[in-house]
Every structure is written in C-alpha cells, then in structure tokens.
C-alpha cells in the first residue's frame, strides 16, 4: 500500500513535526489516561467501601406520621391514645420486601427481655453497691432476630460466634444464642436445654413470670470488656441474648402466631447504597405504607469514606472531557494548517490519479502512527503521573471533607431517622485518603480508543474540506 | 537511447486519434463577471505524434492542458479518450491509467527522493514489474546523476527536478503525455535532451505527446503546432 510508504517517508522526512505531533498526543493521552486511571481507582475504592460498610435501610414505625395519619386506635374497641394495630409492622410484609432484587440480606428485630432463672443467671462481675436498687432491670435483653449475621454488632465485628452457630431464617424456633461470659458463669454449652423466664403482663397490671424452654444453639463473644464498676445487668453487653422472633413472642408470654408476627423494626442490607429508591418501590409494591413505616438509609459512613475520592473522580472525569475536546480542537487546527501546507502535495497525488480517500488515509495513518507512539509512552508515564495527580487532588478533598466534618460535629444528622440516638452505634470512619492506581488493559484500550478517535476526528474534519477541491484548483492556488 | 522510454507493452497504435476535444469551453466566474477562457475548441490528437500548443500568455494554454489531461472539467464540450468521454470514464481513472502531466512548477513530492517519487507514481498508477529498477533506468536515461537519485528532490537543482518530473510521467506508462513548459527552467543543452526524449516517446513508443510551450525549439521539434489565440485554436 503506497499510502503507508508515503506516510512513513513523510514522517521520517519531517522529523521535527513528527516529534511535535507525538509530544502533543503524549500530553493529551497522558492526561486522558490519568483521568481514566483515577476514575477506575475511585470506582474500585467505592466498591470496596460498599463492601466494607454496606448500606442498611431501616424500616420502623414513625409515630408522628401515624398520629398525623389519624390511624391511631380508630374504632374497634381499642384504648384511645394507644398505638393500636395500625402501628404494627408484620414479619410477613418484611419477608415480601426481602425478596427484592436490590436486597442482599435482611433482618428484623422484635425486642424483649427474659428474666433469669436458677439455670441461667445474669453475668454481674461487680454487684450492686449496698442499698442501691437495680432499678428493675435485672433481665437479659432478649432480641428476637431473623439473621444474627445481619445484626449490627456482628456485621461490624464487635461480636462473633465462638461455638455453635448463629440464628438464621430457618433456625429452630426455640434456639437461643448467649454470650460466652454468661455461658461460663452458668457452665452452659451448645446443645444444653435451658429455661428462661418470660415476663407476663397480667390484666391487673402485675408482672408474673413463666418458665420457657430454649436450646442453646450458639455462644458468641462480645469484644466489650467488663467495666470495673457496677453496671445495671440489662445494660451490660454480656447479658444480651438472641432468640428467634418466635422465641421473642414466647418471652412476651404469648403463643407463637398469636401476635400476628409483629416486629419492632426491619433492616435491609442493600447491594448498592444507591438502590434505596428501588427498594422503596418494591416495598410499596409489597403493600408497605412508607409514610407510616419509612425506609431510611444511614449511608453516612459510606459517604464519608468515598466522598473525597468520588469528588476527585468527578474532577478527573471533567478533565478527561476537557482535555479530549481541547486536544481534538488543537490537533484539528494543527492538522488543518498542515493540510493547507500540503495542498500542493495532494494536488500532485490527485493529478497522478490517487484516490481522495487514500490521500486522507495517508494523513490519518501519519496521525495515527504518532498517536500510537504517544499512547505507548503515555501508558508508561501515566501510572506515576496519575498517582501523583490523584494523591494531590485527593489530599485536598480529604482535608476539605475533614474540615467540613469538624464544622458539622455536634449538629444533628438529617439522614438519621433516630435523631442521633443511634449515632454512637456507627463506628467512626475516616475518608479514603490514598489511591490504588493500576494501569490495566481496559484503561489502555480506553485511552487507545479515545486517542484514535481524536486522531480520526482531527484529521477527517479539516481533511474533508480540502478534498472537495479538484487538483487544478489545488495546483494553481497560490501560483 | 535504445531502450524504450515507457517500458514494455506500453505503446499506442500510431496514427489513430487518441484524444479528441469537441466544443471545449471553459468559463470562470469572477464576482458578477463571467470570463470565457476557451471558446469551443475542437481538435483530434493522434498517437505517435508530438504536438506543441503555443500562444501568448493568457490565451488559455494551461487551461486547455488542464481540461485535456483531466485535471479540470469543461463548462461545455467534451474530451474524448479513444472515443469515450473522460467525464464518464472518470477523471481520476483517466489520469491514473491514460494521461500523465509534467507541470511547469514541477510538483514533485519534496519529502521523497527522486526514486521514491517515481516508484510512488508507478504504484499509484498500477504499473507492474520491478519499479525501482525502472525508476533508476529512466533517471539514467534522463541524465540524473547516480548520487542524486536517492536525495530528496528539494535538494536537487531545477534542471534535475525537471528530469525527475519527466521520468515520473514516463514511468506511468500512459498513452498521452502532457507537459506544461517543460524546458522553461532548463539550460539549452538539457532542454535539447528533453525535447529528444519527447520525440522518441511519440515516434518510437507511439505515445501522444502534447506540450504547452513558449519555446521555439520545442515548437520546431513537434509534428504539429497549434496556436491558441483568445481561447480559440487557429
């Protein structure tokens, strides 16, 4: 193919111009590739952050919304001013929502208490000081849950199973999981049958207890050590036990199924923090009244982690576009000026009967050859350059985020439906402050496509205009 | 010069009309003015003959050459190559296969060497065979020194460039060779050599050679002299 030979001869004959074109392409490709690498690094960081903190949507009763809706204890013989059935969140509804494709796992919780028995006593390393009342909290805090792994302490790693297994959706209904200090104090092991006292509210208002059978299915360890001072038993992490939702119903002194599967709250771990909208749609489709049982995501951790790196990626994205557009324009102008200089050459070739597309092809080959060289150089240089640029940009964004966080410390978080009550439950996280820049084949392919696209646009747009002329016009112009 | 200038199998049948101009008219718009440079030119050119087109500056010689060589299209009339309208044949195809032009301003590709200019043209026009060898032969025949063959043409003298331009046209093995003032920039001796080359092309190789010239020597060496005056052949 003669056009390739001509392109090669031209490139080698005008070495200065060739080097200049390669240099310009190198700058463009390096900046574009750096932008892509920063974007990929940010995407990887966001994915990793997503996996580490996840995003948990919580569904629970909004009492104010219920009052505003006027659905509290309407008719049906209930006590006026009581919450009533309209405020009950049912397991059956949550089970339907759990089937949504955006939900990775879900859980629900029915809170309750269990009174100790001779067989299962509370763990109390420091007894109450003489004369001090326990304040009526000499109970185990017994939460009925669907999936122990989805409980925040287990998700965060503050608690972990050390013997047996955790509660799962298909666990036997009389299973109980206790903390290892309680197990040790009471010489209990996995598989032991135990009795816990259910608290029963009698019609006359008096509390009585009823022995309820459970089987120890698992023993867990909570990382919080005992304090050296007296702590009311129910407040001590060691006295937290977990039962199934049916177990919690029985500890309420009710028969399984008699309460209609009412729970306190449900949590849904989303595959992506951005899927809340879709979850809401699915929840409404399942029959949930989201005004009374709103779904909220506390994705503050996720935002804190990825906020600065995402801003850096956004900046990189804008840079990629700006450089690509500016690069195309600059190159197009240079090539247009080149083509003007080479009108005579084109006229000569046309006079020999060379086809116009081949003429344009020669220019394209020349520009693409420069682009390919530049892409090769850029692939080598971008790893270091984008690391430096990315770290610099990210460090600025992290400082800004930390400053903003310091300014906002103490202010209520509008995304927290509990009004800050749960704030201490979320572990503090620091924004991601380093970038893991990796040049992969996909990045090279992307910058290759961009570079070649720029080369094609910058050549064909001005080239098309010149090639409309006929050889006589070209050869006589300026003569 | 015993060797054929245009290579093997490149001759046309001498004596037959190869190129016909019929009612050839060319006008140019300039603002609101319309200037007609050629006015209904008719002529038939035969293979195996050398033609000189002479006339004062502005008489339309170069325009006639552009139209006949397929570099431009007429406003009216036709150029027929072996009876076929070159517009229908395709101007690019006509230039590629049947016509070659030696320009007044040489128009060599300056980033190529003399040999590369010739082999490139041969590739474009589809000439088969050992191109480089043929290029060297032609340059040798036209007196281009050995050391100049592989130099970029920008580094060659005007006379050397003219020789290279002619060698390039000859290398394309076409039926009609056009030349626009080919000896204008050459010394007398070189010009005589070039004229001899054109004569051999016409008489020995059966080509149709059409030369636009102001040179009396070229006109005298031609088989037919056509005078162009105010856009008409006389």
UniProtKB/TrEMBL annotation, chain A:
Membrane topology, record value: Multi-pass membrane protein
Pfam families, sorted: FtsX (PF02687)
Compartmental location: Cell membrane
GO molecular function, one term: transmembrane transporter activity
Recorded superkingdom: Bacteria
One Gene Ontology CC term in the entry: plasma membrane
Main location: membrane
InterPro entries, per the entry: ABC3_permease_C, Macrolide_Exporter_MacB
TM helices/strands, residue ranges: 315-336, 364-385
Protein name per Swiss-Prot or TrEMBL: ABC transporter permease
Keywords for this protein: Cell membrane, Membrane, Transmembrane, Transmembrane helix
Entry annotated with the keyword Membrane: yes
Region (Disordered): 402-437
ABC3 transporter permease C-terminal domain mapped to chain residues: 319-471
